[in-house]
Amino acid sequence: MWVAMLLLAGLALLGFGTYEVMVQHRLQREGIRVRGLVVRHHTDGSRIDGGPVYFAVVEFVDARGSRHTFQARSSGVKGFPVGCGVPVRYFPEAPKDARIDLLRRRIAEVAALLAGGTLFTAIGIWMLATGR
């Protein structure tokens, strides 16, 4: 049972990581870059130590003059105080899928998914191979 759960979780994370790589690549090629503004922080869940997890909520205006708001996909607001300007990339046909366009955040979002997926999958395979 545990082996199946580990393998399923690992493969799911690898799938989400792969999807995020494809979205990020497409955003770099086809996305429109604009300046966004951190308008608030959304609190969601809690860390292992019991503290809250914060996500920056960013507002931007698209090329047509419409306002859009999105929540950053990764947590942490260090460096993103309310009122802070951030680079944003979005697809003209889907502005709700906008992302904060900072290299370190793009890498961190993808690396966390792929590393977690690789770890869970490797542990599951190891458990299968050793008969645990």
Summarize the structure.
With 132 residues, this protein is an alpha+beta fold. Helix content is 43%, strand content 33%. It has one domain (2-130).
Characterize the structure shown.
The protein has one domain. Strand 1 and strand 2 form a beta hairpin. Strands 3-2-1-4-5 form a five-stranded antiparallel sheet. Helix content is 43%, strand content 33%. The N and C termini lie close together (11 Å). The chain is elongated and about 60 Å long. It is built from two helices and five strands; from the N terminus they run αβββββα. The mean pLDDT is 90. The chain is of the alpha+beta class and 132 residues long. Keywords: Membrane, Transmembrane, Transmembrane helix. InterPro entries: DUF3592. It comes from Streptomyces klenkii. This is DUF3592 domain-containing protein.
Helix content: 40-55%
Morphology: elongated
Order of strands across the biggest sheet? 3-2-1-4-5
Overall average pLDDT: 90
Question: Could you tell me the strand content as a percent range?
Answer: 25-35%
Poorly predicted sequence stretches spanning 5 or more consecutive residues: none
Q: Care to count the β-strands?
A: 5
Element order: H for helix, E for strand: HEEEEEH
Counting structural domains, the number is 1
> Termini distance?
11 Å
Number of helices: 2
Return the structural class: alpha+beta
The largest sheet, given as strand count, sense and whether it forms a barrel, is:
5 strands, antiparallel
Radius of gyration, whole Å: 18 Å
How is this fold's topology laid out?
Elements: H1 2-30, E1 32-46, E2 52-61, E3 67-71, E4 85-91, E5 94-100, H2 103-130
Helix pairs in contact: 1-2
